[in-house]
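Technical note accompanying the year-one report. For the benefit of new consortium partners, we illustrate the data format agreed upon in the data management plan: each record pairs a sequence with a structure-token string. No post-processing was applied to the example shown here.
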Amino acid sequence: MRVLFWGSPEFAVKPLEAILASSHRVVGVVCHPDRPRGRGRKVSAGEVKMFAGSRGLTLLHPEIPRGEEFLSELRSLKPDISVVVAYGHILRPEVLCVPCHGSINLHASLLPAYRGAAPIQRAIAAGERSTGLTVIRMDEGMDTGPILARRRVGIGPEETAGELAGRLSELGARLLVEVLDQIADKGLEPVSQPQEGVSYAPKTSPEEARLDWNLPAHKISCLVRAFDPAPGAYCFRSGSILKLFRAVPQERQAGKPGEIVACSQKGVVVSCGDSRGVLVREIQAQGKKRMAACDYLCGARMEPGEVLD
């Protein structure tokens, strides 16, 4: 089939690569225009745009995917199907129906759970032990279309959002090709999503990544994992932002919430609201690179008894 691919971030690269390696033909790629990125906010292309450009694929990068001119460009590519992976816009009906086989979407949750922009981060933050992948036939709603395929995936006890996204991207790439093959063979019937179990995963914000040490140690650990690598869970030390990574719950600690109770080669133990602690193994000081907590301690005067805001 002639595939029109939609996606922008790194999560979508493996699915695009898998489709290119399959029997299907990618006739065009729709992605976001260049945007400010990284610490320096330098304008640059997203991962899908860079990858697609290196393969010589036809690129479309509208600010908003609508309008007669844009629709005309889509029709000129004569796609049989649209494949959407983390594109970031809700597509209008007139866009979805351009291909003769409609549009499908790969979503990083077991729908109808965690509909929305941040299913991986929200699942980890909530302490879920498993999540999954769902391929749906797209409709006008946000991740509400009928299901074509689902796969359940376990979440490791210390797995971060970045690590889980990498695994789901690779698994989703294979799942998408299977679905495309079945659609081409006319052997796949969609099934409506269940009415029960609906939940939402709105986009995360830097404000949400600020840690509240009154929370239980397990919740603190989940939040640190959910915001790794970005934006990074943080607190304040002497008025400066301190980002924390690789936080593992510990046994009971004698300290008030936010108090440092131990510093060692293993890392820094901070007391939490349930009288347990978290061992923080990686730290990023404001304006500095991420590093092992023991390396941070070599240059920072941090001792038990200090309280992090």
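Partners are asked to follow this layout when depositing records. The first helix runs from residue 13 to 20.
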